[in-house]
Design goal:
CATH class: Alpha Beta
Helix content: 25-40%
Strand order of the largest sheet: 5-4-1-8-9-10-11-12-13
Strand content: 25-35%
Number of strands: 13
Distance between the termini: 20 Å
Radius of gyration: 18 Å
Order of helices and strands: EEEHEHEEEHHEHEHEHEEEHH
Shape: globular
Length: 290
Amino acid sequence: MEKYGLFVGLVTLDLIYLAESPPKNNQKIVAADYTVAAGGPATNAAVTFSHLGNQATVLGVVGCHPMTQLIKGDLANYKVEITDLDPTTQNVPPVSSIIVTQATGERAVISINAVKTQATRESIPSEVLQNLDQNVNIVLIDGHQMTVGNEIAQTAKARNIPVVIDGGSWKNGFDKVLSFVDYAICSANFHPPNCQTEDEVFTYLSGFGISHIAITHGQKPIRYLESGKAGFIDVPTVQAVDTLGAGDIFHGAFCHHILQESFTTALQQAADVAAFRCQFFGTRRWMHSQ
């Protein structure tokens, strides 16, 4: 049975190029391939969640600038709905330019995040909060719309809807959200205040009552803590063509699998999906190869 997920956070337009290497100063290079897609952690997770047979809505700022048609068209293609926190803004949407190195799959990114497009609690459509318990099975917060994410997480927690955070990096205000979180899925770059080691990160997050925590390390094993029990999960070994958005896709797959599997099984299956994605260029082509 399909589930419904609400993904709160950043919506960007990604311009993705495949090249031998990023350019040096004053150098022009010709890309071997390119693609354009909607991006952002919550957005890519929502696309993945939808691809795996569910319904997904992104809650973020999009607006009505002409460039947003590219975002809206891409998400419509993947059956992801948009609930716009500022539908009348004519500001240019955040744009990310990404160069993927052919030989390694590593990416170089320059972007504008959501710092200039922060929405308020009043921006949340009333029906979103009213319908949380009726239509939503899981919520993901990526931290790029922290005020909105806090409100959604608090409401979801009160209604026994599981809340997942994408802890790609520490963002101011996460400390207000964490007490409402059920699953903290973080990268090795997630460093809360005064946390220098991963043990300190686990201790910090556990202090908010989060019983399910995982830290990913790219192609290296995932380290997790489940109700005080620690362990590692191996990830598949693949020849990476492009690693862009692999973490986002991991989160979307986790949201799908955790609704039907145990924590460790959901982590393993999410790792399988993310590894498969890394064998294709861009954040979408992997979906057309299954």
